[in-house]
Amino acid sequence: xxxxxxxxxxxxxxxxxxxxxxxxxxxxxxxxxxxxxxxxxxxxxxxxxxxxxxxxxxxxxxxxxxxxxxxxxxxxxxxxxxxxxxxxxxxxxxxxxxxxxxxxxxxxxxxxxxxxxxxxxxxxxxxxxxxxxxxxxxxxxxxxxxxxxxxxxxxxxxxxxxxxxxxxxxxxxxxxxxxxxxxxxxxxxxx
Length: 191
What we know:
Layout (H helix, E strand, L loop, with lengths): L1 H39 L1 H35 L4 H4 L3 E7 L3 H11 L6 E7 L4 E6 L8 E11 L2 E10 L10 H18 L1
Antiparallel strand pairs: 1-5, 2-3, 3-4, 4-5
C-alpha cells in the first residue's frame, strides 16, 4: 500500500514538473525553430529549436520549481504534496452559530489583498470571492461552504485556487490565503 502511495505522489510531482518543462520548452523551441529556419534554413532551424527548447524548458523547470518549493516551505514549514499544490482546501469546525460564522467568513476576506466577494448566499452557505492579479498568480478564487452542525457548531470548508486554469505554480499564494483565513476564523472562534 505504501509503495502505491509513493508512486502516486511521485507521479503527481513529476506531472507538475513535466508541465513546467513542456509549457516553457515547447513554445520557446517552436519560436527558435521558426526564427532560425528563416535565417539559416530548415535543418539548422529544427535542430536549434529542439536544443533551445530542451535547455529553456529545463532551466524554467529548475527555476520555477525551486522558487515554488522554497516559497511553500516558508509558508507551510514543510514540503508535502498537499502543501505544494496550487489548489488548497481546509475543513474546520467552529463553536459558533451559523450566522456569526458566515459573517466571520465574509470578514476574513478583508485580510486577502484586493479581494472582492462575487457571490454570497447565506441560505445555501456559499461564498465565492476573487482576488485580483498579483505577481504570484493571475488572481485567485476563494470559496466557502458553510454548514450548521447544531445551534452552536458550524463546519466550514475553505478553498483557494488560481482563477486561471493554466497556473502551474503559485509560489504558495493559495496556501497563504487558506492559512490566513483559517487562522482568522480560529481566532474568531475563541473570541
